[in-house]
């Protein structure tokens, strides 16, 4: 049943194991539900269209997919920056999630801690905890070595723990 | 090298990975596991309606991939910019072989104001709402959704007025397409065939800068 592309990707498996992770990561970047849905669709569409550009020697399929998702998400942010004064969405709906009171408090605490991070650090958190990528896959996305990702991740986690303590 | 991980860092990273996969961590690293779980639980999850629609699209894409020699021509549609104002420009995604690939299509039509043909069904009338591309847009006066509700199968209509030729990129309900709009005003009609009932994001972006992004309710 595996459907492989010329690049050797089993897309069916990649889609099945990555759909929610891609959405979670993209939603964290674009911070808008409608845009997150659109960008997630675009990311999978592009991945399938560009499967020939995947090379296993250059990294994992998930790392490659998230590289595409990341580019699509940042394209969206750039487009938004260009068009926002002209066409501000009527209301940004937050990405779907747990909305109980406890969860809201918890999410506010996490959000406050995340807001203390720099852009690169937040990116790392999204790729690790929203997308659930391995450190090697994060390295594929960001062009960093696995150990460099690990070092940065430890630093960020330490920072968050201090902030949330 | 400076990136070399210490044994403690390796343990912390291992604890994060273990927590992410739901496995137990050493008691002294409970704090790391708790933080990992907090961050993981705070992540966004897709709406079931969107997930179902994306699954449907993905199934179509994968099925289409088996039948085509290359690429995916099923969504991207380019209409020649040379199309004259007299023409009703209709762009239809190319079918994957006529064996049920309809659900992967996004049909786009541009109907210039003066040459409205009436060949396409008129949308229900409804209060004008949503985004207006605004008077300060140098290349376009506006993109305006005619109605934020549409019956599945009826065209979703976006009124446009542009001052120069512009490519429009449309994303709706997990599908996408492009077409070129000629200067003037008219109706951009977006096919909703096969779109299931629910709230779906719509995005129309002009390469010249105007954009409309909103949510559309598709009814049975």
Would you give an account of this structure?
The complex is a heterodimer of chains A (165) and B (220). With 165 residues, chain A is mainly alpha-helical. In chain A, 69% of the residues lie in helices and 0% in strands. Chain A folds into two domains: 96 residues, Orthogonal Bundle (Rna Polymerase Sigma Factor, Chain: A), CATH 1.10.1740; 68 residues, Winged helix-like DNA-binding domain superfamily/Winged helix DNA-binding domain (Arc Repressor Mutant, subunit A), CATH 1.10.10. With 220 residues, chain B is an alpha+beta fold. Helices cover 21% and strands 29% of the residues of chain B. In chain B, helix 1 packs across helix 2. Chain B is elongated and about 70 Å long. Classes of the chains: A mainly alpha (165), B alpha+beta (220). At the A-B interface, helix 1, helix 2, helix 3, helix 4 and helix 5 of A face helix 1, helix 2, helix 3, strand 9 and strand 10 of B.
List the topology elements.
The complex is a heterodimer of chains A (165) and B (220).
Chain A: H1 11-30, H2 33-49, H3 61-83, H4 101-115, H5 119-130, H6 135-142, H7 146-164
Chain B: H1 7-20, H2 30-41, H3 48-67, E1 89-91, E2 108-112, E3 140-145, E4 149-151, E5 156-162, E6 166-172, E7 175-181, E8 184-190, E9 198-206, E10 211-219
Parallel strand pairs in B: 4-10
Antiparallel strand pairs in B: 1-2, 2-8, 3-5, 5-8, 6-7, 6-9, 9-10
Helix pairs in contact in B: 1-2
Whole-number total of structural domains of chain A: 2
Q: Bin the helical content of chain B.
A: 10-25%
- Average pLDDT of chain A works out at 84
Proportion of beta-strand residues of chain B: 25-35%
**CATH topology (level 3) name of the largest domain in chain A:** Rna Polymerase Sigma Factor, Chain: A
Annotated CATH topology of the largest domain in chain B? Immunoglobulin-like
Order of helices and strands of chain B: HHHEEEEEEEEEE
Q: Evaluate the radius of gyration of chain B.
A: 23 Å
Question: Mean pLDDT of chain B, nearest integer?
Answer: 69
What is the first-to-last residue Cα distance of chain B? 62 Å
């Amino acid at each position: 049943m595996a459907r492989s592309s010329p690049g050797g990707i089993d897309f069916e498996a990649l889609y099945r194991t990555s759909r929610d992770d891609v959405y979670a990561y993209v939603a964290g970047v674009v911070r808008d539900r409608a845009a997150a849905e659109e960008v997630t669709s675009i990311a999978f569409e592009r991945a399938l269209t560009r499967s020939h550009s995947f090379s296993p020697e250059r990294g994992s399929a998930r790392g490659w997919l998230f590289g595409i998702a990341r580019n699509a998400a940042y394209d969206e942010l750039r487009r938004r920056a260009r068009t926002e004064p002209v066409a501000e969405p009527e209301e940004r709906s937050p990405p779907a999630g747990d909305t109980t009171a406890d969860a809201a408090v918890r999410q506010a605490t996490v959000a406050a801690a995340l807001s203390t991070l720099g852009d690169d650090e937040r990116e790392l958190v999204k790729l690790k905890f929203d997308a659930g990528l391995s450190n090697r896959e994060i390295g594929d996305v960001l062009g960093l070595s696995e150990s460099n990702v690990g070092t940065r991740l430890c630093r960020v986690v330490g920072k968050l723990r201090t902030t949330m303590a | 090298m400076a990136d070399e991980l210490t044994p403690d860092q390796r343990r912390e990273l291992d604890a994060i990975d273990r927590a992410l996969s739901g496995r137990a961590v050493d008691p002294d690293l409970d704090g790391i596991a708790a933080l990992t779980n907090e961050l993981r639980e705070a992540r966004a999850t897709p709406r079931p309606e969107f997930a179902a629609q994306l699954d449907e699209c993905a199934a179509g894409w994968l099925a289409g991939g088996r039948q085509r020699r290359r690429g995916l021509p099923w969504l991207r549609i380019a209409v020649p910019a040379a199309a004259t104002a007299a023409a009703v420009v209709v762009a239809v995604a190319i079918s994957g072989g006529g064996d049920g690939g309809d659900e992967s299509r996004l049909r786009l039509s541009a109907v210039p104001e003066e040459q409205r043909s009436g060949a396409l069904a008129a949308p229900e009338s409804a209060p004008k709402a949503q985004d207006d591309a605004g008077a300060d847009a140098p290349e376009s006066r506006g993109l305006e959704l005619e109605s934020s509700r549409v019956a599945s199968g009826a065209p979703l209509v976006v009124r446009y007025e542009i001052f120069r030729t512009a490519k429009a990129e449309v994303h709706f309900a997990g599908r996408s397409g492009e077409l070129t709009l000629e200067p003037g005003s008219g109706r951009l009609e977006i096919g909703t065939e096969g779109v299931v009932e629910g709230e779906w994001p719509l995005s129309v972006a002009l390469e010249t800068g105007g954009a409309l992004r909103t949510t559309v309710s598709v009814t049975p």
